[in-house]
Amino acid sequence: MDEYDRIARYYDLTHDRLTADVPFLLAQAAEAGGPVLEIGCGSGRLLVPLARAGQTITGVDRSAEMLARAEPRLAALPAQARARVRLLRADARTLALPAEETFGLVFFGYNTFMHLDEAAAGATLKRLRPLLRPGGRLIIDVANPLLLSQAADDPDFALEEILFDAAHGETIRHYTAYEAIPGEQVVDVTWVYETDREEGGEEASRTRARLRYYYLYPHQYDLLLTLTGFRLTAIYGDYDRAPFDEESERLLLVAE
């Protein structure tokens, strides 16, 4: 089972609050022109506002459960916006689309690219290169590797937050542990969701998922993009397009 299938029902509770990247991507899509291809679209957090803004968008994800959670969001869209959206269950490394189909914007949202090791990242970018039309943009949004490398090793579980899922009548305690892999630019992140039913309900349950994140430094991303046929054109440190530095929260890469 894909780890995101395991935690799909909890994902939106922890990620829907992330909204700062939406205006950034709306602006990038407007500047680059459509259509748009999102790799790792999940439950549609970014896909839906892009469709509402008039973009024709294809969302790709390998998790069936995450795509299933996107469907109600799409159903709530006006009919014209819904008609502009296509969901595909696929692995980006082997994504097969018609040869004539190209996109003005291809993007990896919040930390999605970090699930790819070096070989998978190279294979994915090579697969995507022919899909980006001349003058189009590729955007990769990842955590600042300089900060991640300094604070990545905390193997003890810490309570991240307490959530309430009104749809299921549950209080959920979300725990996180980080474990750096010595000598490698890799962090294993374990999420545990512990649920308590309301009084009179079922017993508490626990769901655990372990995800591996790979991080690169800016010069390594530059080399990777060059080797796969792209040209790095901009690096930002936040969604307001501030210059990247060692204290930036994000590393946003724009390539052509």
TrEMBL record:
Which Pfam families does the protein's record reference?
Methyltransf_25
Q: Methyltransferase domain: which residues? A: 36-136
InterPro entries, alphabetically?
A: Methyltransf_25, SAM-dependent_MTases_sf
One Gene Ontology term of the biological-process aspect is: methylation
Report the superkingdom from the record.
Answer: Bacteria
Q: What keywords tag this UniProt record?
A: Methyltransferase, S-adenosyl-L-methionine, Transferase
Q: GO molecular function terms here?
A: methyltransferase activity
| Key word Coiled coil present | no
Q: Which PANTHER family match?
A: METHYLTRANSFERASE (PTHR43464), UBIQUINONE BIOSYNTHESIS O-METHYLTRANSFERASE, MITOCHONDRIAL (PTHR43464:SF19)
Q: What is this protein called?
A: Methyltransferase type 12
Organism the protein comes from: Candidatus Promineifilum breve
